[in-house]
């Protein structure tokens, strides 16, 4: 919902229903990063109300469009976060599996070596004196 | 003085930042202020982030995040990842994002939890309400993405409800019995308790009505065919029974989010901290070096030999620092050490309760934030 004026659409407040700090703070950040914005902020009118008010004032562009752009950019950034994260996790898993395999191989080799030595020791018929 | 045409052109095109001896970018002291929180003895300083795009306009620096920059700079480093725990570094992102992800993980990523407990018999010491509450808090290892929300007008069916049965009895003349989550038995066909129909109008031909109406068995679904639904841990104590006591109940688990009740939170904890950075402002030698090493409980510092019997302190493991400020308690050491936190480097930890692995939980959280943006955009257009 938008609360603004008919004559000047560069200043407006928006009520986002069923949202809280989670989205509002991120959106505020994105708005502040936009050079067209002169003021951006948000408030929660009452803790038992499930809504936030986002205030946007711009240098002239319609506030609604600027807010929309902010959300759009936020979404793109999230997509990027997700792709980078997924890549990092799959790389980690590959690396982890490799290290684990290596460790097991090493352990096996060590055991075999030990076994060999033991056999050698057994076969060498050492006389105790 | 005569102003020539040349002077005029020069004045018009003059930009102080073009002069060769004017440094580009933020001066170093401002850079530190922008990127680091410094924990002083009494309180941290420079905690705020300058997020306004024009914050540094007089230094000729554009403070706005351009998507291009972000695409290049953002980095994720996975430190460890198991079925239940995960630690990773998120580098090059603002706290607004890290906090949004954390908040969503805790309160908006769905999971399954027991919502209704139908108690047929409970002669144990634990009263019904408390027992039901304890049941609700049991984490359930079921992928919530395979289920739908149960809304007010829905009937519980195989798509939105998981039914467990618990029937234990402690035999007489025996020692006390522990009721554990492994005693919970999954009922893939739904509730077995019959609804009272009021009168004997129901004929024997109609199927008797239970508290759920499953159209098919859940274990006939491919997702659950070979892995039956169980609680995440099988050794959680639910109640203790004395000889002769009995509990008989049915528990119905549904999908929900942590905002409604903490039992639906898919994480034990999800938290982050900024990467600590310990800086030695001056060389710390000899006695002071030894003092510094001894005073730090997290073994952040190490001693290096400089030869001819002299020693110097080095920062060996800054990541271990908990910002306990023990090393800046004494005034003389406080002048030597500075404790900083990197503002855009987050060490993020997720502990899953077992419904989904932590890396999946994080991607789900990011997806939820995306959905929120989408909804706002749709609302505005
Ligand atoms: S703040 Fe505490 S943990 Fe960090 S370096 Fe100082 S003494 Fe060690």
Detailed description of the structure:
The complex is a heterodimer of chains A (129) and B (381). Chain A is an alpha+beta fold and 129 residues long. Chain A contains 2 helices and 4 strands; from the N terminus they run ββαββα. Chain A has helices at residues 21-32, 63-123, and strands at 2-4, 11-17, 37-43, 51-58. Chain A has a 4-stranded antiparallel sheet with strand order 1-2-4-3, covered by helices on one side. In chain A, a hairpin with a 7-residue loop joins β3 (37-43) and β4 (51-58). In chain A, α1 (21-32) packs across α2. The mean pLDDT of chain A is 90. Chain B is α+β, with helices and mostly antiparallel strands and 381 residues long. In chain B, 23% of the residues lie in helices and 29% in strands. Chain B contains 9 helices and 16 strands. Chain B has helices spanning 5-13, 28-35, 67-73, 95-107, 128-136, 222-225, 286-295, 331-334, 358-380, and strands at residues 36-39, 44-45, 75-81, 85-91, 111-122, 140-141, 162-169, 177-180, 185-186, 230-231, 237-241, 246-256, 267-280, 301-307, 310-315, 337-352. In chain B, strands 1, 2, 3, 4, 13 and 16 form a 6-stranded antiparallel sheet that branches. In chain B, strands 5-12-7-9 form a 4-stranded antiparallel sheet, covered by helices on one side. Chain B has a two-stranded antiparallel ribbon with strand order 6-10. In chain B, β1 (36-39) and β2 (44-45) form a beta hairpin. In chain B, α4 (95-107) crosses α9. The longest helix of chain B is centred in the C-terminal third of the chain and has 23 residues, at 358-380. The two termini of chain B are 61 Å apart. The model of chain B has no long low-confidence stretch (mean pLDDT 89). At the A-B interface, α1 and α2 of A face α3, β3, α4 and α9 of B. Iron/sulfur cluster (SF4) binds at residues 278, 295-296, 298, 300, 321-327, 339 of chain B. Iron/sulfur cluster is lined by residues 278, 295-296, 298, 300, 321-327, 339 of chain B.
């Amino acid at each position: 919902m938008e609360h603004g004026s008919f004559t000047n659409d560069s200043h407006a407040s928006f009520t986002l229903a069923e949202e809280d700090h989670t989205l509002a703070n991120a959106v505020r950040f994105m708005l502040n990063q936009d050079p067209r914005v002169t003021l951006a902020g948000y408030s929660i009118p009452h803790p038992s109300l499930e809504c936030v008010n986002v205030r946007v004032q711009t240098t002239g562009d319609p506030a609604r469009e600027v807010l929309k752009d902010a959300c759009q950019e936020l979404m793109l950034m999230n997509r990027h976060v997700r792709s980078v994260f997924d890549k990092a996790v799959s790389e980690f898993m590959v690396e982890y599996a490799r290290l684990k395999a290596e460790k097991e191989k090493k352990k096996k080799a060590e055991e075999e070596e030990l076994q060999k030595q033991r056999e050698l020791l057994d076969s060498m018929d050492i006389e105790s004196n | 003085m005569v102003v020539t045409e040349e002077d005029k052109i020069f004045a018009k095109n003059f930009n102080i930042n073009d002069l060769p001896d004017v440094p580009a970018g933020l001066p170093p002291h401002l850079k530190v202020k922008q990127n680091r929180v410094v924990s002083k003895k009494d309180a941290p300083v420079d905690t705020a982030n300058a997020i306004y795009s024009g914050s540094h306009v007089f230094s000729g620096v554009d403070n706005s995040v351009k998507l291009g920059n972000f695409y290049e700079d953002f980095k994720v480093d996975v430190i460890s990842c198991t079925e239940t725990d995960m630690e990773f570094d998120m580098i090059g992102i603002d706290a607004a994002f890290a906090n949004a992800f954390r908040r969503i993980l805790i309160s908006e990523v769905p999971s399954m939890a027991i919502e209704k407990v139908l108690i047929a018999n409970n002669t144990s010491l634990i009263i019904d309400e408390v027992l039901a509450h304890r049941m609700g808090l049991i984490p359930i290892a079921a992928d919530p993405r395979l289920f739908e929300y149960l809304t007010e007008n829905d009937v519980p069916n195989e798509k939105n409800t998981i039914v467990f049965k618990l029937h234990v009895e402690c035999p007489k003349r025996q020692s006390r019995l522990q009721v554990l989550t492994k005693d919970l038995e999954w009922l893939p066909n739904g509730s077995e308790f019959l609804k009272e129909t009021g009168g004997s109008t129901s004929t024997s031909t109609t199927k008797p009505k239970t508290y759920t109406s499953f159209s098919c068995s859940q274990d006939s679904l491919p997702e659950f065919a070979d892995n039956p639904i169980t609680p995440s841990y099988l050794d959680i104590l639910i109640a203790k029974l004395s000889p002769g006591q009995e509990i008989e109940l049915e528990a119905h688990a549904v999908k929900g989010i942590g905002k409604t009740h903490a039992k639906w939170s898919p994480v034990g904890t999800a938290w982050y901290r900024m990467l600590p950075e310990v800086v030695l402002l001056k060389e710390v030698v000899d006695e002071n070096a030894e003092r510094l090493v001894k005073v730090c409980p997290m073994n952040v510092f190490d001693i290096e030999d400089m030869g001819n019997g002299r020693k110097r302190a080095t920062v060996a493991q800054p990541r271990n620092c908990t910002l306990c400020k023990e090393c800046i308690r004494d005034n003389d050491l406080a002048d030597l050490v500075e404790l900083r936190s990197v503002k855009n480097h987050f060490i993020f930890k997720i502990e899953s309760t077992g419904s989904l692995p932590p890396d999946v939980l994080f991607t789900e959280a990011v997806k939820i934030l995306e959905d929120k943006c989408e909804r706002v955009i749709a609302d505005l257009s």
